[in-house]
Amino acid sequence: MAIMPIPGFFDPDRVYQVWRVPYEKRAVEAREWAVQHAVEPASADKVRTWLLLVDIQNTFCIPGFELYVGGRSGRGAVDDSRRLCEFIYRNLHRITRITATMDTHRAMQVFHAIFLVDGDGKHPSAYTTVSAQEVHSGRWRFNPELASHFGISPEEGQARLVYYTERLAEKGKYALTIWPYHAMLGGIGHALVSSVEEAVFFHSVARYSPPHFEVKGDRPFTEHYSVIGPEVELGPRGTVWGRHNDRFVAMLKGVERLVIAGEAKSHCVAWTIADLLSDLRREDPALVNKIYLLEDCTSPVVVPGTDFTDRADEAFASFAEAGMNLVKSTDDFLGS
Questions:
Q1: Of 43, 60, 168, 189, which one has the fewest beta carbons inside 10 Å?
Q2: pLDDT digits (tens, 9 = 90+) for 234-276
């Protein structure tokens, strides 16, 4: 079978909504679907396909949530989620395993307003960029009221903020950005998009292939856009702020194809791919050809005054030049 039909319960008009997945019902239907369409367990796959879903969470994908990724059309993440669900259902028999990254935050982190204060004790507004120069000058300082929470002195907190913004400047990426509170652990924004969660659950039962979840972003003193590693791994005096995730290269060696989709194309998706590419260039450059990027299942950040579309497209063009495959969810690139 080239592609599979889409189950009748899937409603493309609900992908922008949050709702409870009827697990028991879907589990029964998934096993019936597998029997009806002669879908074998994933363990029988001779050609193994790994689907990596980057941060397809309500906080990024549902209109009205904290960091909804609308792209230039305003429907970016909604349309991405619909196409992604359809891709999973159509290729249910070909997808061996699914990994979902989960951006995971708490209030007191370096990219949230509560972490910083100005000379009057006021916090920065969302989307403020904080440069190393502004931290040095005292325009923005570590909030001393948080020091006891971290078990450090206010001076140490300031030293860490100085160190972090300096490292970001040295790396030449974005300056520290104050984001709205988002992907809060325990909150509804942290959860997978309901329609996507349903598709992942259906796949897991139909193919006897449990999904794998990668938590990232819960370290207080560093941002963590890429699931491969944080923006800064070590703080002053060698304090560990986060660790490089070496499992992805090892996992890629065990499959024939890695398909990547998610949000946002300009940030967590692009930086995950870039970090993976760097690892592969060190470990085994030939593995780059195994990677397929679903261009129509990812959108860039576009907010008033800032449009990252061109930068995201340039990043994807560089990935293609490096040997990765740019595809659409409707392309029959997985073969029979």
A1: 43
A2: 999 888 998 899 889 999 999 999 999 999 999 999 999 999 9
Q: Are 149 and 108 in contact (CB under 8 A)?
A: yes
pLDDT for 96-149, tens place per residue? 999 999 999 999 999 999 999 999 999 999 999 999 999 999 999 999 999 999
Q: Classify strands 306-307 and 302-303 as parallel, antiparallel or unpaired.
A: antiparallel
pLDDT tens track for 136-179: 999 999 999 999 999 999 999 999 999 999 999 998 877 899 99
Q: How far, in Å, are 6, 293, 322 from residue 88 at the CA level?
A: 9, 14, 26
Distance CA 167, CA 152 (A): 21
Cα separation, 110 vs 162, in Å, equals: 11
Q: Rounded to an integer, what distance in angstroms lies between the CA atom of residue 150 and that of residue 242? A: 16
Of the three residues 177, 206, 226, the one that is the final residue of a domain is 177
Assess whether 191 and 296 both reside in one domain.
yes
CA–CA distance, 196 with 86 (Å, rounded to integer): 10
Give the contacts of 88 (CB within 8 A, at least 6 positions apart): 51, 95, 98, 199, 200, 203
User: Which residues are registered as beta bridge partners of 103?
Assistant: 216
Residue 50 CB-density burial (10 A; 0-12 exposed, 13-18 middle, 19+ buried): buried
Split into its structural domains, the chain has a count of: 2
Domain that holds residue 143: 113-177
Q: pTM, whole model, 2 decimals?
A: 0.95
